[in-house]
Amino acid sequence: MPPESTTTSAVESAPTSFRIQKERTQFLGLTFDECIQGFFGGNALLAVIILGLITFFLFREGSSFFSQNRDNLSIYRLAGLEYVDLGRQPEKDHAALSRYLADLRLRTYQYYTAQKALPAKEANTLLADFDLYADRFARASAPIRSQLMDWSEIANDIKARHLTNQNLAEKRRQLLAAGKSAEAAAVKILPINFAVEVETITTTLPAYAEASSTFARSLEELIVAPPILPDVDLTVRMARFQALTRDFIASLPATLESMKKWDATVPVPLSQSFTAFIFGRQWLTASFWQDWYGAMPLIAGSMLVSLIALTLAIPLGVGAAIYVNQLASPVEQRLIKPAIEFISAIPSVVLGFFGIAVLGEFLRVASGWSFLSWVTGFPFAERLNALTAGCLLGLIAVPTIFTLAEDAINNVPRAFKEASYALGASRLQTIIRIIVPASLSGIVSAILLGLGRVIGETMVVLLCAGNRIAIPDFTAGLGVVTQPVHTMTGIIAQEMGEVEPGGIHYRALFVVGLLLFFIALLINYFAQKIVRKYKVSIG
Amino acid sequence: MENSSPTSAAPSRTLATPPRVARKDDTVPSPTLIDVKGLDFYYGAKQALFDINIAIPDRRVTAFIGPSGCGKSTLLRCLNRMNDLIDGTAVKRGEIKIRDIDIYGPAVDPIELRKRVGMVFQKSNPFPKSIYENIIYGLRIQGVKSKTKLDEVVEKSLRGAALWDEVKDRLHESGLGLSGGQQQRLCIARTIAVEPEVILMDEPCSALDPIATAKVEELIHELKKQFTIIIVTHSMQQAARCSDRTAFFYMGKLIEFDETHNIFMNPKNAQTEAYVSGRFG
Ligand SMILES: Nc1ncnc2c1ncn2[C@@H]1O[C@H](COP(=O)(O)OP(=O)(O)OP(=O)(O)O)[C@@H](O)[C@H]1O
Ligand SMILES: [Mg+2]
Q1: Is the N or the C terminus of chain A less surrounded, counting Cβ atoms within 10 Å?
Q2: How many residue pairs bridge chain A and chain B with CB atoms within 8 Å of each other?
Q3: What is the pLDDT of residue B2?
Q4: Beta bridge partners of B245
């Protein structure tokens, strides 16, 4: 049909053939467009619902931890365990002093064998006096120790009976729920009067006080005549030991005082259950004495490992991003980009494997090289430690940081670059003064997301971090990185399979998971906030 | 191919010591500053410039005109070696001499060259920094630290770009907060702050309204006392108003180069005639 005729016919029949009304195929009363919209909307909604369910589930499983932990802490107080621990503190401090002596002996021994070149046997003979002294020092705490042993038995017995009662009560509840009231009534529970029971401990405080003063007296006798040591440095250390022991003796009355003031009937507030979790320095489970659920060692471990990882990953990731985007030739770009992105495809268990077999061993051996002996913390004996795990986590974070930072750098308008060059700037000056500042917020958010990746990583830390549940000793300076640590993710993976569902330990692990979830949420929130700001400032 | 060059008294000065004597009289022929001879330029395998010969006079305004894609920007960006930043570009034949120095010679540092040959872009592109920081960027990268010197340059450059009165109270606010015309003058100020000899302008007014355009044109008129200016424009009126000489390009070739009034009133080439009278392009 020639074009003119179409136009004319259209004009003639205009009112009827000008078809703009809706007339589309419909499924179930929905147009095709609406179906597609519904499909995508449904998917988005599902994602939101699942996120909500996860949050809800974590909360439900985790929330009753705090009341359970309060019960845990209450029984610690009611059964007198707390009291016994007060009395045990001097024993612990005394043991630390004994260790100081043992260290001093080792130094003296080394002095004899290394500096005086004496044979081992002769050195030991020279140290016979010292050994005698150390032995007497160690045995000085015997009086309070026997007292503490008696107390521990009583307290443990009270606690055990309480736990039995709890089990019986649970059993009775189950029977009642099953409708077997006769059997339920047959379950006998002997109620415990805690106040009375604990008095069997507290009333013997005078005996403990007596033992304590004997202890103090024997220490005082010992301290006036310590063994003479052959070197200035060693003598100084011995003087320090004397001073420490005097301080310790002076602290004994305060301990007695706090034991006198102790009151089993003071209730444990819920907030303490909270602070005991967040700031607690011990994570001790399945203990015969008292379980502690303090997240601090895990938080500190996770932070330490992440810090090491970021220290490595930031220069590598950002540096590679700058290089690939600004300096590399197209051939290099084609090689480097996929290579770095491939790292993220390596299963983390394989990396962990590599960490144990190669990296950890290498680092340990390298720490022994004499030309590296100036590094704090070198040499170290543990193959698996925060450094090994941190190095691998850094590797894992590199692709995330690299990809996102490269994106951010790529988004810097070409015009800025050209303007800089046209003003006589070199490539390096343009990168440092224009490109990095203009993409800084993007780079920072890349780093944050890298951190998120690192904090959440489980396999590598479980395999390589050494899994020692203790707050790393930050007084060691940089050497802290060579200590084994445990992490929030690692502990969940390690212990979740062994715990009894619904128990306090199980719930404690959930709360750790909840904590991780919030940290991840927070990191993502800040990363997004920074990116949004960045878009405005470049616009 | 018409290519009337003025009497080129070969100056013995080097690039680094530009003359700073204001010249008043535009009718007097000016010596050649930039001398392009037989230039062939390629983007990869694609040839963009064919045998360009042009002698650009010192402290005059030279306009490049021609239809889109004819190579005006390409030639302009050859003059400060901005094309080096694009992979695969090459000058295959010919040379460009500024003050008798071959700028593609092995001894020439493109970074030093760009300090002597500044550039203003089509779309104003101030850095996302304060007005003050924008102006002193060129000096900062040269390592100038003295606050008094920097302050002095900022005022001088902004006055030079006729922007001082408008921004003197907001020097430390972002350069992106200015109007389009002000931003373009800020870019000019930033360029003159490093005291180049030549300022290349690639369609500097194409994104500006008539009033802002008039201001920039006025500015160009002032600046030519001190700087050699080359301006690429699609506006015949603009070329006629503010340039002394005009070069017409077509399909990568220089068709005609002459005094501006000759190009517009009395073109020798038929293509030029057709273009300036608006019959093609
Ligand atoms: N980066 C590049 N890579 C390849 N070819 C290019 C590139 N830049 C420009 N060209 C080509 O070179 C020729 C000249 O382009 P140029 O930008 O110099 O034209 P122009 O005269 O400035 O045009 P306009 O008036 O539209 O700005 C065109 O054919 C263009 O397609
Ligand atoms: Mg152009």
Answers
A1: N
A2: 64
A3: 40
A4: B62, B259
Q: In this structure, are residues A73 and A157 in contact, taking their beta carbons and an 8 Å threshold?
A: no
Tens digit of each residue's pLDDT (9 = 90 or more) over A465-486: 988 998 888 887 888 888 899 9
Residue A307, pLDDT > 50, answer: yes
CA angle B147, B148, B154 (to 5 degrees): 90
Q: Which residues contact A412 (CB under 8 A, 6 or more apart)?
A: A434, A435, A438, A439, A538
Could you give the CA distance from residue B240 to residue B248 in angstroms, rounded to a whole number?
Answer: 12
- pLDDT, tens digit (0-9, with 9 covering 90-100), for A323-349: 999 988 889 999 999 999 999 899 999
Q: Which atom of ligand 1 lies at the shortest distance from residue B66's CA?
A: 21
Give the CA distances from residue A53 to residues A305, A493, B151, in Å, rounded to whole numbers and listed in that order.
Answer: 30, 21, 61
Residues spanned by CATH 1.10.3720.10 within chain A? 298-533
Answer yes or no: do A422 and B119 touch at CB < 8 A.
Answer: yes
Give pairs for A425-432: CB < 8 Å, separation 24+.
Answer: A425/B111, A425/B137, A425/B138, A425/B141, A426/B111, A426/B141, A427/A326, A427/A327, A429/B141, A431/A322, A431/A326
Burial of A96 (0-12, 13-18, 19+ CB in 10 A): exposed
DSSP conformation class of A223? H
Query: DSSP secondary structure string, A275-298?
Result: HHHHS-S-EE-S-SS--EE--HHH
pLDDT tens across B262-276, in order? 999 989 999 999 998
* Amino acid identity, position B208: L
Q: Which residue of B has its CA nearest to A438?
A: B128
Contacts of A116-124 with C-beta under 8 Å, sequence gap 24+, read A116/A230
* pLDDT of B17: 44
Half-sphere exposure of A460 (CA within 13 A, CB side): 30
Rounded-to-integer distance, Cα A49 and Cα A153, Å: 52
Residue A320: per-residue pLDDT: 95
Distance CA B239, CA B267 (A): 14
Strands (E), A76-228: none
* Alpha carbon nearest to ligand 1 atom 3, residue: B43
The interface predicted TM-score of the complex, written ipTM, equals 0.87
Residue A493 pLDDT: 93
| Chain B: closest CA distance from residue A429 (Å) | 7
Architecture of domain A298-533: Orthogonal Bundle (1.10)
pTM of the complete model:
0.80
Ramachandran area for residue B64 (φ above 0: left; ψ -120 to 50: alpha; else beta):
beta
DSSP string, A81-104: HHHHHHHHHHHHHHHHHHHHHHHH
Asked if the Cβ–Cβ distance from A537 to B128 is below 8 Å, we say yes
Secondary-structure percent of chain B, ordered helix, strand, coil, rounded to 5: 35, 25, 40
Output the DSSP codes for A425-441. --HHHHIIIIIHHHTHH
Q: Measure the CA–CA gap between B60 and B31, rounded to whole angstroms.
A: 10
Q: Which atom of ligand 1 is nearest to the CA of B76?
A: 18
Tokens of A106: 């080792």
A365: exposed, middle or buried (Cβ count in 10 Å: 0-12, 13-18, 19+): exposed
- Check the CA dihedral B99-B102-B105-B109 and report its sign: positive
- Does pLDDT of A73 surpass 60? yes
